[in-house]
Amino acid sequence: MLKANFHFLTIFLIGCSATFWAVYEIKFIMPLVWLIFLSIWILFSTPAEFKMFFRRFAQIGLLLLIISVVQIIFRREGEVMLSLKGFPLVFSNGFREAMLLWIRFMIIFELANIFAQVSLFEFLLFLNKIRFSIRLSLLLLTALKFIPFMFNEAKKGLWVMRFRGIDIRKLNIKGKYIAFRKLLMPLLFRGIHYASLSSLALELRGYGAVEYVKISQAYPLKAHDYCILTVILIINLVGIFVL
Amino acid sequence: MIEWLRQNFPTGINYLVRQDDKEQINSFLMELLVAPFQKGRKHNLWGEVAERLPLIGKKLGWVPNKIPGTFLTDTVEGEIADAVAAADSHLQPLVSHFEKSRNLLQRFKLLYLSQQHPLSLSQGETKLIWFLSQWVKKPEYLIIGHLPSGISSQRIKDMVNFLNRECNSSICYPIIILGFQPGYTEWCNKLISHQEWKVVSDWPEY
After folding, report:
1. Which of the listed residues B138, B157, B176 is the one where a domain comes to its end?
2. Looking at the domain assignment, is residue B62 inside a domain?
3. The whole model's pTM is what?
4. CA–CA separation, A149 vs A134, rounded Å?
5. What dihedral do alpha carbons B135, B141, B146, B149 form, nearest 10°?
6. Which residues of B40-70 are buried (b: 16+ CB within 10 A; e: fewer)?
7. Nearest to B41 among A52, A175, A182 (CB)
8. Quick check: A162 and B57 CB within 8 A?
9. B55 domain residue, yes or no
10. Alpha-carbon torsion A139, A142, A144, A150, what sign?
11. Between chains, do A190 and B73 touch, taking CB under 8 Å as contact?
């Protein structure tokens, strides 16, 4: 079912709801519900990506683990959950914050993964249908297109550096800093070059001459969008009035 | 990979390899050295090749028709100096590296490009600068997929003369492997006439 192409509004509202509950809720349950919801979404829509998602998440796992341990040890508020010979070790607030930290980061990563699947044209179409000005829409799109461009350029620079025989992982901190600076300079140059060419191309095509351009292609909400929107509404209402 | 090259292209001679199309050797190397960077995430973000690439890069120079990377400095002489510095295990080029770079550019009649930004160069100039940055690495093998692609006939002559001159002198360090396409061999006749070059009929299987 999730193979269906969802409307950007559906994905946007999922993102807003999940972010809201992850940031403002101080109990587990709603962030956890959203985490499960997003996990199921990714699992059914792009199962291969789910495996990749965990691999990427594992890269910051150690950092999160350290922060969690710090939270558990030094946040000494709430009820005592674990004690050793009368000395309180784990407090409920510290444990809750540590858990929420993991849930929040996982939600951020999962949302990034879901938004990355949306095509730029669909995004443009969505902005156009809500009568966003063409100039701002294109600005947003260019900014989004900029991320993979910069990523590719960085990869190219890194490749060249390594092909010259420099193993960055074996460098000391000063060496790493020099290597990073070397990588950054062409990246900035290429970035500015890319941005100026893109803006020139857009201006030459006449974008910016008028405030709003109507794209005639229809972009309606479909039955599966309504189903998901209903589920989002129910989860939010339960979160507000029941839990 | 270097072992494989050593087995198929023993030292002491340079090679001209016949290829069906001008991208055959380049495609092979692209798949082996660059593609894992673009799609490889097997063991870490950059894939397994990343582990070995610095070692391979020290021993292998490669000049494709379209360069797979980017230039790291803002002048041509800086770019070559950077490659010279890397070959000397320096992260940043020293004055002597810049001198070497200028000497090389002069020998190649490219000194007028020394202060230009590498990204402002034409396709042919880019290829030549990339070639020089590979040459100064002093690799064990230097593979040039298809020399004439993207460069003018005068530049081809300059490159052929450069290779002949370097290979006849005592400072010829890499074993050069050049790809050629049957029917388009005008440029390499001058090279074939030299005894240091051996013609190989097919690019070996990896």
Report:
1. B138
2. no
3. 0.72
4. 22
5. -10
6. eeeeeebbebbeebbebbbbbbbbbbebbbb
7. A52
8. yes
9. no
10. negative
11. no
Q: Any idea which of A10-14, A71-75, A209-213 has the lowest mean pLDDT? A: A209-213
ipTM: 0.87
Q: Which domain holds residue B80?
A: 75-138
Closest to A75 measured CA to CA, from A65, A90, A85: A90
Query: What is the least distance, in Å, from the CA of B97 to any CA of chain A?
Result: 15
CB A179 within 8 A of CB A168: yes
> pLDDT tens for residues A30-41?
999 999 999 888
Structure tokens, B173: 């360090």
* Cβ separation A159–B91 shorter than 8 A: no
| Residues of chain B found within 8 Å of residue A186, distances taken between Cβ atoms | 70-74, 119
Q: What is the DSSP string of A80-102?
A: EEEEETTEEEEEHHHHHHHHHHH
**Cβ within 8 Å, pair B86-A165:** yes
| Tokens representing residue B46 in the block | 């950059």
Going edge to edge, which strands form the sheet with B141-144? B60-63, B141-144, B175-180, B14-18, B197-200
Q: Distance from first CA to last CA of chain A, Å, rounded?
A: 29
Look at residue A177 and tell me whether its pLDDT is greater than 70: yes
Q: Please, what is the average pLDDT of chain B? A: 80
Tens digits of residue pLDDT in B26-83: 888 887 778 776 665 444 445 556 678 888 888 888 888 888 878 888 889 999 999 8
Same domain, yes or no: B128 and B151: no
Pairing mode of beta strands A87-91, A80-84: antiparallel
A186:B72 CB<8 A: yes
Q: Residue A171: its chain B contacts at CB < 8 A?
A: 91
A91 bridge partner residues: A80
